[in-house]
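User
Take a look at the entry that follows and flag anything odd:
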Amino acid sequence: MYYETDKDDHNLSFSPFKSCVIPRPIGWISTRSADGIDNLAPYSQFQNLTFDPPYVMIGINQNPDGKRKDTTNNIEQTGEFVYNMVTYDLKDKMNKTAVGVDPSVDEFEFAGLKKVPSKLVKPFRVAESPVQMECVYYTTLRLPGRGLSGTVDVIIGKVLAVHIADDVIRPDGRLDIVKIKPLARLGYADYTTVDYNFELMIPTDDEDAIFGLGGASIINSRKK
């Protein structure tokens, strides 16, 4: 099958595009409005961009009425947000926070989640999440859509601090991804989770390549 995106002539019952780049990590993003209202929402167009120092990006589409999402407004107005990792056990509560509610609604309370204070930013962290990142706003890249909801704000933030639950760190110092069971999107209404992993090392002696793939910081990793 072949189709051109400007024509959207795939002739399928469902658009295949979002299932062609998978699996996608879910950015469960917590923010606080300028008025002090806590917000929590999931975004599957989320990814890390680099590692030294670490940056992340969130792709946030507008609402069908053309209004920007609360998350976008909160981040740009306050300059702060938190990424919370979604696990399989948290899938139902995550799904509940995907519901569009009034900006006055606290999604932590709406989904029955516990708040825990951050160290360096004001937005709360999801206590039940095993990994959280405190972030500050860097910039927004606004991409125009064909319709109102197609327009997307690509928000980039710098990671200031990372919280990891001690019980998901293996004795060798690596995260136990299989124990965490992070959730990911597959397109449509489909999801998956990580229930096994394997190691595949690049056959090279290039220290710079190995350094980059490991995601280590130059601050500590190259001290002798």
About this structure: The mean pLDDT is 93. The domain at 23-197 is CATH 2.30.110.10 (Pnp Oxidase; Chain A). The chain has six helices and twelve strands. Residues 67 and 148 are 8 Å apart (CA to CA).
